[in-house]
Amino acid sequence: MPPPPPWLSVFPFCDSRLVRTQQTTFQIDIASDIVSSMVVGSLKLWTDLVVEGFQKSLRVGKFLCLLHAIDTYVCTPVLPYGPSMLPTLNSTGDLVLVERVSTWLGKVGRGDMVLLRSSEDPRKTLIKRIVGVEGDTVTYLVDPKYSDASRTCVVPWGNVWVQGDYIYNSRDSRTFGAVSYGLVEGKLFWRQIWPLKSFGSLHGKAKEDS
Amino acid sequence: MGTRSLLWDITKKYLTVGLVGLTISDRYASIVSIRGSSMSPAFNPGSDTNDYVLLEKFCLDKYRFSDGDVVVFSSPNNHKEKHIKRIRALPGDWIETPNLDVLKVPEGHFWVEGDNSVSSLDSRSFGPIPLGLIRGRVTHIVWPPKRMDRVERETNQRLSPIQDRPKFY
Questions:
Q1: ipTM, 2 decimals?
Q2: Least CB–CB distance from A122: residue in B19, B63, B78
């Protein structure tokens, strides 16, 4: 086998087995080889790109999964809106954190503020304060705006009685009755960063009020 | 050092798989087994085996259901228990209760009954149930293989909401 010509090193894609052929076909061979190796090279580039993109999106997907798990099982931010919790939460502009762990453990009791799915419209969530748990006797003012008539009832098993802090303008258990514990989604535990003076845990406040 | 990094790798892998599985089962679909005979013959026709069914969660975005859907919901009396029953009436429908009253299903609630009405604890004992307690809709039976099939939406005439009642109810 003859040694490869020295100029062959210019074309790194060809190998020495091509040198055996005649001059004319030899050049054609080299040309086709270069083209095919370019195609192969660009294909490799593309596969690399695709693989990298796939890995990146996989990483993003994993991150979203982690976010979902934290949001569903640990804690989630909520923007309360409306006047029903007025002295404790502003009617708008607060940002509170809701933790899910104590709901999951069943450790939500009287005086806790909870996030719950509305039993009248499941697409809405409410923030109210638990006034009575299962088996409690609850006495409440039916319509404090216009009369001081009160009514007493017993909270059924597996249910909780929720009321807003601002009873004059709150749609709560007084209208739709006790709600099932399965609708409670989490307990409010931290009022958020803004405005700064209200920054802090809601825990002590709940104790004071109840 | 080598074993530690190996352990860390394995933990990370399991954690990732767990998180992905959790997300899928929370948001998209999961597989549950059915115990008891309250839904036979649709599920568990023989009492010795448990059926496994596919539970889809997409319906929880909008809470749109229709009569005859089989749903899984947590019990209104005990949130840790899950029940599987068939929806008989949706908000605004009229339903006949066992003591021959006619009741309008309140807003945001639904009325469920088991297919096997003899041994079924359902809305006839605990009344209308809030829609927010629904945890998913059953679409397919996946196990045992010979019963693998879609779950049909079935409206039983006897139990279906009463259409031709006078308006003053």
A1: 0.78
A2: B63
